[in-house]
């Protein structure tokens, strides 16, 4: 029998964590922040460095793994699927409770190590790199494998746990991009090979956008959208600012490439930019020559004053704050707390969607309103649909993945039931019955697969 426990990420968008147990061996997938709770805490004046495991659980910032206390001595590995903070952010606080290594893809581990070093966390666990396409034995009965998949950050993976009772696939997050602008397309051959064995017992699958009856567009579309806005339609006499997730290396590279094309100095502002971009360059995943990264507030302030004096028309700035976060670089500029003021006909490009939780949605609405009140031309996916594409698969991606791996059971993840329930329209058509082969679960739910 295989037991699966949805610890976090089944009742909200974020805080991802799942446990799988077979006989005496358990594997943990992801340990992520609930970013909204973390932002709420910091915006109220809280200092993350004062928090610990217990206080973060009480505040709802990290998964409550006490439901698997009886499994603690069985855990053989902690496996983050990729480097986003809603998947790895809680590792420094939670992993020390387990005598198990953390195993992930090279970029995921590089980002994690840099975060641990930067924040001066004490993480005694062994931290191991596992390349995609390789199998690692973690006990007599269990092996783990990382399968390359596309998402909005490099080195994202679908995790396969091989047991004598079958294979558990953890596909959280993913999309099926056949024309990525950075890295390879998904490893379809391996996914089909696993499906042909008939041994895939279950797939735990990102169903966040199951309500979108389409296939998610390729990152190639977003690169073309960025090129159109930056190269073809920009007023060369004014400032150009943009936002995207700091971990979205492919998108950042597009801004860097097209900024150089119009002879502007490209500058990334924000601490997270430094962490993710430096990790990508250190591993040879991407090269962004000529890009200046300014991580800290005092230096950002100094740079913006210099930019104002030299002329903003000489720069293309990519800054953190695309969610509308009140303490981000963009918010501080809008509030006048940094040495720069937007002027009419400047351009602000939001090359990211809002994480679909209510505070973020409202923060972003207010930020866009503030830009427009200052006469700034605001470009979003609403005004230019190709300036951003999601890293999450839509319903057609999900259908294709299910048909490839042919699982006995499906467990939708990465959102509450309102967001994941639309998958039932597809799975019903494919013969998966709710409560039988399709398991709609919430946080703190255990299921048994015989």
Describe the structure.
Helices cover 32% and strands 20% of the residues. It is an alpha/beta fold. The protein has two domains: 2-215 and 390-449, Metallo-beta-lactamase, Chain A (4-Layer Sandwich), CATH 3.60.15.10; 219-387, Metallo-hydrolase/oxidoreductase (Rossmann fold, 3-Layer(aba) Sandwich). The longest helix is centred in the C-terminal third of the chain and has 16 residues, at 358-373. The radius of gyration is 22 Å and the shape is globular. The protein starts with a strand and ends with a strand. 50% of the residues are buried.
Furnish the topology, listing elements before pairings.
Blueprint: E1 2-8, E2 17-22, E3 25-29, H1 35-43, H2 53-58, E4 75-79, H3 85-88, H4 91-94, E5 102-104, H5 106-119, E6 127-129, E7 135-137, E8 143-148, E9 157-163, E10 166-171, H6 188-197, E11 200-206, H7 219-232, E12 240-243, H8 249-261, E13 265-269, H9 271-282, E14 292-294, H10 297-310, E15 315-319, H11 329-335, E16 347-350, H12 358-373, E17 377-379, H13 395-405, E18 409-413, H14 417-420, H15 423-429, E19 445-449
Parallel strand pairs: 3-4, 5-6, 10-11, 11-18, 12-15, 12-16, 13-14, 13-15, 16-17
Antiparallel strand pairs: 1-2, 1-19, 2-3, 7-8, 8-9, 9-10
Helix pairs in contact: 5-9, 6-13, 7-8
């Amino acid at each position: 029998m295989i037991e699966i426990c949805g610890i976090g990420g089944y009742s909200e968008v974020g805080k991802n964590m799942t446990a799988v147990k077979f006989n005496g061996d358990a594997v943990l997938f992801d340990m992520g922040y609930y970013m909204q709770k973390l932002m709420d805490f910091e915006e109220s004046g809280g200092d993350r460095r004062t928090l610990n495991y217990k206080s973060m659980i009480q505040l709802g910032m990290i998964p409550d793994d006490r439901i698997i206390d009886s499994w603690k001595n069985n855990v053989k590995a902690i496996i983050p699927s990729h480097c986003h903070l809603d998947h790895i952010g809680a590792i420094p606080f939670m992993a020390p409770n387990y005598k198990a290594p953390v195993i992930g893809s090279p970029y995921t581990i590089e980002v994690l190590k840099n975060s641990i070093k930067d924040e001066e966390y004490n993480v005694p666990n062994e931290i191991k790199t596992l390349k995609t396409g390789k199998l690692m034995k973690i006990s007599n009965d269990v092996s783990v494998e990382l399968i390359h998949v596309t998402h909005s950050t490099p080195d994202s993976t679908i995790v396969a746990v091989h047991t004598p009772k079958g294979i558990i696939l953890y596909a959280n997050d993913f999309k099926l991009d056949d024309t990525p602008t950075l890295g390879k397309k998904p490893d379809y051959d391996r996914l089909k090979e696993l499906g042909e064995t008939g041994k895939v017992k279950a797939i735990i699958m990102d169903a966040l956008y199951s309500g979108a009856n389409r296939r998610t567009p390729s990152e190639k579309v977003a690169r073309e959208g960025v090129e159109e806005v930056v190269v073809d339609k920009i007023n060369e006499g004014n400032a150009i600012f943009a936002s995207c997730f700091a971990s979205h290396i492919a998108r950042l590279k597009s801004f860097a490439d097209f900024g150089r094309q119009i002879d502007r100095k490209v500058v990334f502002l924000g601490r997270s930019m430094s962490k993710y971009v430096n990790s990508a360059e250190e591993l040879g995943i991407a090269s962004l020559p000529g890009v200046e990264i300014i991580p800290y507030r005092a230096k950002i302030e100094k740079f913006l004053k210099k930019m104002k004096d030299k002329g903003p028309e000489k720069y293309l700035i990519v800054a953190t704050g695309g969610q509308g976060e009140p303490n981000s670089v963009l918010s501080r500029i809008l509030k006048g707390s940094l040495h720069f003021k937007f002027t009419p006909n400047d351009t602000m490009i939001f090359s990211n969607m809002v994480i679909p939780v209510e505070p973020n949605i409202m923060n972003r609405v207010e930020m866009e309103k503030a830009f427009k009140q200052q006469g700034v031309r605001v470009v979003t996916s609403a005004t230019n649909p190709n300036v951003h594409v999601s890293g999450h698969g839509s319903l057609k991606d999900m259908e294709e993945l299910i048909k490839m791996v042919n699982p006995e059971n499906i467990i939708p993840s990465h959102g509450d039931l309102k967001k994941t329930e639309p998958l039932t329209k597809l799975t019903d058509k494919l013969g998966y019955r709710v409560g039988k082969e399709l398991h709609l679960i919430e946080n703190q739910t255990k299921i048994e697969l015989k």
